[in-house]
Design goal:
With about 270 residues, the protein is an alpha+beta fold. Helices cover about 35% and strands about 15% of the residues. Strands 2-1-3-4-5-6 form a 6-stranded antiparallel sheet. Strand 4 and strand 5 form a beta hairpin. Helix 5 runs antiparallel to helix 6. The termini are far apart.
């Protein structure tokens, strides 16, 4: 086959077409295995997303929502939205106890097919038949939530955190091309409260416990008032010489000294 002939050109075009088709197939396969924007939202110093932009692509890839092995913490993050005026910052809640159980809760969220089958079963038991397409995750409410909700799973190795973005209006939880249905907030908060209750309450070293320090303080004040009411180093007030070097009080001054004591006690 001579170069420049029609058959030669046609053969070259056919070979180029096959190469292009192969490249396109590889790109599509890579996109399915590793979706676009797979790095997810950017995280701040506290380990939570700092921007609502840069979420995950929608998809229904099979498998677990997040990797279960090696998880060391799960953090519930609520990022205030720009549209929510005056929305106070929500504290970061980090779960470090029962992490495996919480990851299991995330991975137990149903897929679209599982949820649709469950809804049809429930409605059928009530004598009702649902339509062909339920539009799960597509027909959403318009509740004005002031924050964007996410759950960040941290791992003890070099892997990047798994950031699960929760859309409370659509009832979806998405991560890396996987879409599951449900809101794991209640399961997380139940475990987070148990974690807080299991921790010992902190005790400040300078704070009196059970009012003991306060009672000692009142006694110290009373003793100081009595010392001011007594003249000099009085140890006895019966008119006799104190063998320990105190100042003796003559009997004639006893009544005045007792009067000073009464006035001092009333002031305390």
């Amino acid at each position: 086959m001579r170069p420049g002939s029609g058959a030669y050109i046609a053969g070259m075009l056919l070979r180029v077409g096959r190469v292009v088709a192969g490249v396109v197939a590889l790109v599509l396969a890579a996109s399915a295995a590793f979706p676009v924007n797979a790095l997810g939202p950017r995280l701040g110093a506290g380990g939570c997303p700092i921007s609502a932009a840069g979420g995950w692509e929608r998809g229904d890839r099979p498998g677990e929502l997040v990797p279960a092995d090696g998880a060391v913490s799960v953090t519930m993050c609520e990022l205030p939205l720009p549209s929510s005026q005056g929305q106070a910052a929500v504290p970061v809640r980090r779960l470090t106890a029962g992490v495996g159980a919480m990851v299991s809760e995330l991975n137990a969220l149903p897929t679209r097919d599982v949820l649709e089958a469950e809804l049809r079963r429930r409605e059928s038991a009530k004598g009702r038949v649902l339509g062909d397409d339920l539009h799960l995750g597509e027909v959403c409410t318009l509740v004005g939530h002031g924050t964007s909700l996410s759950f960040v799973v941290q791992y003890g190795d070099v892997r990047r955190p798994a950031v699960v973005l929760v859309d409370r209006n659509c009832g979806t939880a998405r991560y890396a091309g996987r879409t599951r249905f449900g809101d794991p907030s209640d399961a997380f908060l139940r475990r987070y409260r148990a974690q807080l209750e299991a921790r010992p309450a902190p005790v400040s070293p300078g704070r009196p416990r059970h009012g003991v320090g306060r009672r000692h303080h009142r006694r110290d004040r009373r003793g100081a008032g009595l010392a001011r009411a007594l003249p000099g180093r009085v140890r006895r007030i019966d008119g006799h010489q104190d063998p320990h070097g105190g100042v003796a009080v003559p009997p004639g001054r006893l009544a005045g000294t007792l009067s000073n004591l009464r006035r001092a006690v009333r002031r305390i």
